[in-house]
Design brief:
With 316 residues, the protein is of the alpha/beta class. The structure holds ligand 10G and iron/sulfur cluster. It holds the Pfam family LYTB.
Amino acid sequence: MTKPPLTLYLAAPRGFCAGVDRAIKIVEMALKKWGAPVYVRHEIVHNKFVVDGLRDKGAVFVEELSECPDDRPVIFSAHGVPKSVPSAAQARNMIYVDATCPLVSKVHIEAQRHADAGLQIIMIGHAGHPETVGTMGQLPEGDVLLVETPDDVAAVDVRDETRLAYVTQTTLSVDDTADIVAALQARFPAIIGPHKEDICYATTNRQEAVKTMAPKCDAMLVVGAPNSSNSKRLVEVGARAGCGYAQLVQRADDIDWRALEGISSIGITAGASAPEVLINEVIDAFKARYTVTSELVETAQENVEFKVPRVLRQPA
Ligand code: 10G
Ligand code: SF4
């Protein structure tokens, strides 16, 4: 049987960002330096394949520091942690390595700096997401106000309208965040913030590539996990940019071939925590069913790299 033709658009940039790359390296190097088991507080990045692979090498994933023994090293995930977490590790004399992405740490420092200047902070983020919990946890409980939508901005109850600053999660939708920032600036003209928001280069670039790719595609797949905020935003961005079918898949097994019947083009991208091997698996699944012509949709080139912490660069 001859295979039907299919144009496969591949977004670039896609997949691993510099913060994810560094966080995974930190766990691998910690395992080499200290041997197994090394504990990791929260999924190092939101990807089951990555987590399972590290577990096989001896990493033990837990949600809370209280689940770790005192005498084994612990790593904090790339999403960041409240200040109380390293403090508790210190109090227990534990060896810990913070794999928080430097771009998230930058937001933590920003929040602290605003608070030191006497400003009350409003965070734009998703309630309960570990990055939001970590950033809000840089300051005492209740000090940081959270808004998720422009409606939340209308309802927020601030201490002093003239002494406010905002910070954001790094993986939000660029467009939705612009609306929330505009609502904040309209209600609180004196509010201080970053140049635009704290959304990182990787989030911005992946969303931009999807915006360019989506209108060309009959359908679009985002390789990523259901708990991956940045991956879910890519699905939304694709749908909003005009792609009639945009779906998150963890790997090739998740593809709903029925839903794709009759397509002549497919767009593929991946969230910042999805490894390239899973993207290739998805591409190969299309190649098995279609005569594929591939086209790269490249809207930016990335060359960001972050160093691992010094403790891992030194011999044990
Ligand atoms: O997109 P989220 O924040 O859910 O995380 P992820 O692990 O899927 O991707 C990498 C992004 C971070 C580590 C948060 S800055
Ligand atoms: Fe860092 Fe951005 Fe990657 Fe988050 S998504 S780990 S902020 S580079």
